[in-house]
Amino acid sequence: MNKQIAIIALMAGVAAALPLMTGENPYFTGVMISVLMMAALSSAWNILGGYAGQYSFGHAAYFGAGAYTTLIFISRFNLNPLLSIVAGIIVAGIIALITGSIVFRLRGHYFGLASIAVAEIVRLSVLNFDFTGGAQGILISDVSLWGFDLNSKNPFYYGMLIVLVVTLGITLFLRKSKTGYYLQAIREDQDAAASLGINLSFYKNKALLISAALTSVLGSLYAVYIRFIDTTAVLDLRLSIEIILTAIIGGVGTLWGPVLGAVLLVPLAEMLRSNVIGDTLVKFGIVSASSGLGIFLKENLAHAHVLVYGIITVLCILYLPKGILGLFGRGK
Amino acid sequence: MFFLQSLLSGILTGGVYALAGIGMSLVFGVMNISNFAHGDLMMLGMYLAYFAFTLLHIDPYVSLLLIIPISFLFGFLIEKVFIRQIIHHPHQNQILLTVGLGLIMSNSTLLAFTSDPKILTTSYSSSAINIFDGISLSVPLLLSFIVTCGITGILYMFLSKTTTGLALMATSQNREAAQLMGINVAKMSAIAFGLGTALAATAGALIAPTYYIHPMAGHSFLLKAFTICVLGGLGSVFGAAIGGIIIGIVEAMASTYLSTDWKDVVVLILFLAVLLFRPQGLFGKKGEQ
Prior knowledge:
Chain A is an all-alpha fold. Chain A is 74% helix and 2% strand. In chain A, strand 2 and strand 3 (148-149) form a beta hairpin.
């Protein structure tokens, strides 16, 4: 455990020094923020999905709850951003408790389906209500905290990094605690765990609450960072799937799996989205910019990142179901 | 008056939902897999009907004669290449694999045909029959309903009278016992997935004349198909048929008396309520789940 704490501290130190070394590079910082955010999201999901074995397919609901609550409080009531984040945690917590009381009675197929259904109810409600901005979403202007203006990227870089470190710390602490052992017992065999006197519902809900609270903080940070949200960006099923996929690729139920998954997947998606691959092919003369293929790549490759995610998901489930860290036998 | 009108159009739409639900239920029953690509298979059916109509000038209801064998083959191959490998994996991996396959289908369609919605307009697309004053039935919906009834009837005969159909049902009831009786369960899985795909594509083709056709169209039908299956009892073909009609009516009523925006929410709440209070479905036996 001490070794793991040392590794987390070392990684955090390197990550914290990174912006100082690279100087002002908004594109790089932007990608890094996405990497840290997805690493933290996936690690938070991993507490429930990886350690307790409860694959939630609806984590976008907590991310969206944080994002929407925070922006609504900032834009309507001009509340302090930090308090707005706390408000987001409360809303996400309430949704988590309601979700938990429904979905944790179900198992197998039913649990996965019910978690999607709850998240879709949240998404459609946000889309249909007026105070959430409906299909237009919410846009806010400049945000400041204690006189500092939050329009640069660095505060969010460090914000995401702190949440990631906290999430990894909680994971590390949990898995050596009584709760962590109970969760892993539930994952391996629910009935056996129940027969040993473990209160299934209490511990599953505990894991869900921790996971949802962390996810909502990330949603809040994202919302203030981007300053515009709509249901497609923060509440879509696609986001829930991306979170799971990131954990699967790295290794579900491992401390570093979700981080590894994010480091691999996010830059790939970013490259596809910003068309770096297409531009590189053109730059090195492999594909001519004016040829049919060149035009096709330029126009379409940006949309292809979800397709690539789909292909990676299929390949990963078929050939690498335990993830990359699973290959090295660091399963637990 | 409103009530009767909603009831009738709900039943007609529900018939098409029932087809999609039956397809999913069949796959679930025989293979014990929740197919998250089902909605996207429906979407592919919509595109097939669209291109059969615009390129080959075949009426969507006639093009079913092409769409059904093509989609059966497609599903059969998907099972052979992908699904077969994870049939004994944990549920979450099965879900993720089918999610991945669905993403590939919808996003390949997006790349090939862009996200612009396409509309299939037949000569009778917006015509309606007046039954008696104030109550009318949309012609394409009525035609779809009649075709649905025909296909469901044929499927019922197939499942209850032919050797392959009975073997499918036996596999659905008890995979191990069926295998011990000499049924080739691996082959049954491929047939079930082929049939499920064909039914999804048929449902897609049938709603194509009354719906916007776009790459993400399957998304909203996926949870509907699940709701139908759960309502009818996962794995029950008869239950799914009734479940489809019920969902059609619930949606139509919710649109009339609540608002169109909230009809999907009503269906999802119904879904959760069934999962919680009657997880075996309306027609399933207790303890089956």
